[in-house]
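User: Can you model how 2-acetamido-2-deoxy-beta-D-glucopyranose sits in this protein?
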Amino acid sequence: MEWRFSPQSLTTKRIKFVFCASMAIVVYLSTTYTAMNKSKKTTDVLQLPAFIKKEDVRSTQREHIVLQQSKIIVDSREPSISVMNKSVGIKEGKMIQNMEEIQKKRKGLIKKICAGIQPGANGYYKPLGNKMLIFNDQYKFLYCKVPKVAGTSWRRVLLVLTGVLNSTAKVPGFNVYQQNYPSISQYKNNRRNYTSFVFVRHPFHRLLSAYRNKLEKTVPLGFEKIAKQIISQYRHNTSFDNTNSEANVSFPEFIQFLLNFKSKSNLNKHYDFQHKCCAVCEYSYDFIGHFENIVEESNYLLHSLGITRVSFPEHDVYDHATNSTNNTTYMKYYSQVPSRDIIELYKLYEMDFKLFGYPFPKELV
Ligand SMILES: *[C@@H]1O[C@H](CO)[C@@H](O)[C@H](O)[C@H]1NC(C)=O
Ligand SMILES: *[C@@H]1O[C@H](CO)[C@@H](O)[C@H](O)[C@H]1NC(C)=O
Ligand SMILES: *[C@@H]1O[C@H](CO)[C@@H](O)[C@H](O)[C@H]1NC(C)=O
Ligand SMILES: *[C@@H]1O[C@H](CO)[C@@H](O)[C@H](O)[C@H]1NC(C)=O
Ligand SMILES: *[C@@H]1O[C@H](CO)[C@@H](O)[C@H](O)[C@H]1NC(C)=O
Ligand SMILES: *[C@@H]1O[C@H](CO)[C@@H](O)[C@H](O)[C@H]1NC(C)=O
Ligand SMILES: *[C@@H]1O[C@H](CO)[C@@H](O)[C@H](O)[C@H]1NC(C)=O
Ligand SMILES: *[C@@H]1O[C@H](CO)[C@@H](O)[C@H](O)[C@H]1NC(C)=O
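Assistant: Here's the modeled complex, given as structure tokens:
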């Protein structure tokens, strides 16, 4: 169909256009006004996750922030928690006292690093969205789950709390991921009072865990395409050339892929930036847990939430499938990666290292 311009109707068209446009504006303004009034009246309108006290939202449009190197001082020294008794640690006054101190330090560090970042290229991203958040109304907490940081174990705890599971023990054939968790989309009241928490992990341990879990041997559905892409692009381009064309993605190949990945704001959630997953600069969490002491810290947290009928599933962590935190395993994989790539990889995940107080991995270069 051809569109014809007819000069005689131009004035009519203009009048019509102006009329329509004004009507549209009137309609728009009135709906906006109604919407504003509505959201004022009812608190159960889906809004920003109100659980987290918004600290300093400099700009919601802002996609990227660069680190201002000079302002950053990493203080990874933490009070020793080695004195803890893994099974009863939470009951020991010393541990509780230490944990408060540890939390103060961790939160202070995040605040400091976040204050030193500015809009710019690479590094700061908006939250992945509401799917990262799970809440529990009975004990009034909100958990932001970073993939590859003991999410399965925390899910088990949540399922015991809601009565879906009888214990945190593994149940054959029971998929914790296919259960219903109250997420922010089912959010009804103001949960500003809820205790919010997030668990983070050494960025390189987490990457290794993602690699071992998703690419090393059995490649799960959804990763086959990525695996093929990595092999076709990097197999004959790394200093660790994998001559076996049948072999699965090697660790250095995976690292090459990460370093060359064009759209760093679109990384798969299993190796996406931890600070992005839970928007740690946008929201202030009440508790920042570290995977490295996850059993003790989770039990401390559960205890402080008044939860006594379930403790964190120790067995999950200590016989964990990928052993990525084991120094022997860690060294074995990362020693295959050239120093140059280690430094680039550190730069890529620098925000996670600095925000969560993990030092530069000098043992790898
Ligand atoms: C930890 O506490 C349990 C329970 O009280 C006790 O049986 C165990 O001996 C303690 N372990 C250590 C290393 O103190
Ligand atoms: C939980 O325990 C009850 C009663 O012993 C049992 O009927 C039920 O099957 C158990 N549920 C799970 C998921 O194991
Ligand atoms: C939040 O806490 C305050 C003070 O403890 C209490 O008055 C208020 O009802 C709480 N709000 C919700 C939604 O639980
Ligand atoms: C590659 O992965 C497949 C499963 O996707 C596995 O069966 C095979 O043994 C792996 N090959 C090598 C060389 O590890
Ligand atoms: C492969 O290696 C060459 C030489 O180091 C480099 O110029 C090129 O960019 C690399 N290609 C990819 C896809 O990384
Ligand atoms: C992890 O370590 C344990 C104990 O050292 C070992 O039995 C297990 O096979 C390891 N798992 C993997 C995937 O390497
Ligand atoms: C780490 O892994 C090595 C090799 O698999 C194993 O011998 C060692 O016992 C592990 N260390 C710990 C603390 O599990
Ligand atoms: C891990 O092992 C390497 C090499 O043996 C060593 O330099 C490094 O200090 C170890 N790291 C830890 C945390 O033990």
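A couple of observations from the model: The pocket of 2-acetamido-2-deoxy-beta-D-glucopyranose (ligand 5) is lined by residues 233, 237, 260 (CB under 6 Å). Confidence is low (pLDDT under 50) at residues 1-13, 17-21, 23-94, 119-125.
User: Helpful, thanks.
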